[in-house]
Amino acid sequence: MAKKNEKVVLAYSGGLDTSVILPWLKETYGYDVVAFAAELGQGDELAGIKKKALASGAVKCVVKDLRREFVEEYLWRLLKAGAVYENGYLLGTSIARPLIAKHQVDVAHAEKAMGVAHGATGKGNDQVRFEVTYMALDPSLKIIAPWKDPKFTLTSREAAVDYARKHKIPIEQSKKKIYSRDRNLWHISHEGADLEDPANEPKDDLFVISNPVARTPNRPAYVTIGFEEGIPVKLDGRAANPVRLVETLNEIGGKHAVGQVDIVENRLVGMKSRGVYETPGGAILMTAHNALETLTLERETMHYKQQVALKYAELVYYGLWFSPLREALDAFIDATQRNVTGEVRLKLFKGRCTPAGVASPNSLYQMNLASFKMGAEYDPTDAKGFIRLFGLPTRVAGAVSRRAQKD
After folding, report:
1. 257 within 8 A of 351, measured Cβ to Cβ
2. Domain assignment of residue 56, given as a range
3. 286 CB contacts (<8 Å, ≥6 apart)?
4. Other CB atoms within 10 Å distance of the CB of residue 153
């Protein structure tokens, strides 16, 4: 048993796992549990969460609205980096975990708690993201992870549903409706149930914030995003609040099924997992940002930044947000964004988001150079010597190969 009044702060979403873990911690170890919930734009999921936490045995419930910080300090950095994990996942859950854990540690300090707890499973990536952040920000805090506790027997979603029913804890899940979902401003993820078999196509009723492609409008929509130094600041010519900008693009993109991704990804813990993601606003912003960079980044910087984007995505996915390397990469990325200013018009239609026009005052694209028409600014005879020197290694290798074949 815990010492009298020993206090822990639980990252509490009100979802199935944390709904049962809160009373379990009190029942099993006698902890005084402070529930911490982060408002990250998950719709109405936090409605009544304080009442539910207290009714489930929490001594206190702290709710923080972190939406603005989430967008400005996390999502915009992700966007500027162009970070996408394994060609599809826009890192919606991954990027939120370090922010939640950071404020959870702050609450632990304010409440003079001895430890922090989370409901991430022993098979997933989130356990790493939470715990590495705790260690980075305050290694003196005890980390309590019930899914890795031998006493914890609620190691299936079905068992958790039974426990919740027995303890009269209100939950949305049932044994027939048992998808594992995570939602915030950037996305919603879907895992589990029939999705565990990659051979199963996602059902139309799976989608929450976007239409199935079959139910999208038959006419395209157009949006224009204005950027300043890599950060989106305008929507259709009007200055936009960062949070409202993402919300609006989610509404527009969701209507046209933009940002739906179905992938089998490689988890950090070693296994493959299948997830279906809806990231309508994020997909629009990533497409727009990438299009603007094609005009404003010179070749070598653009190619190197593509390599950095892969590493940045790995760092976010692996939970290494609070790492020296991520901070160092941000310095490089910020330098690349100095000229990424301009407007991008996008066409949204039947699940696709495509650029329909890009303009920048810092554009490196020059029509007189790009034109097929030869002009004084480009002497084609210069290319003759360039090609001979550029191809010299290949020419030498080819000559040696032919000589060897003759011998």
Report:
1. yes
2. 7-72+92-178
3. 79, 82, 84, 90
4. 10
Q: Residue 96, by phi and psi: left (phi above 0), alpha (psi -120 to 50) or beta?
A: alpha
Tell me, what DSSP letter sits at residue 214?
A: G
Q: Note whether residue 367 is domain-resident.
A: no
Q: Which one of 178, 205, 233 terminates a domain?
A: 178
How many Cα atoms sit within 13 Å of 24 on the Cβ side?
25
295: which strand partners?
Answer: none
129 with 209, same domain?
no
Q: How far apart are CA 231 and CA 75, in angstroms?
A: 10
- Phi then psi for residue 290, to 5 deg, are -60, -40
User: Residue 373: what residue type?
Assistant: K
CA atoms within 13 A on the CB side of 107: 26
The catalytic residue positions are 17, 97, 126, 180
Please provide the average confidence, as pLDDT, over all residues in the chain: 94
Q: Amino acid identity, residue 199? A: A
The pLDDT tens digits for 134-157 are: 999 999 999 999 999 999 988 777
Kindly report whether the global pTM for this prediction surpasses the value 0.85: yes
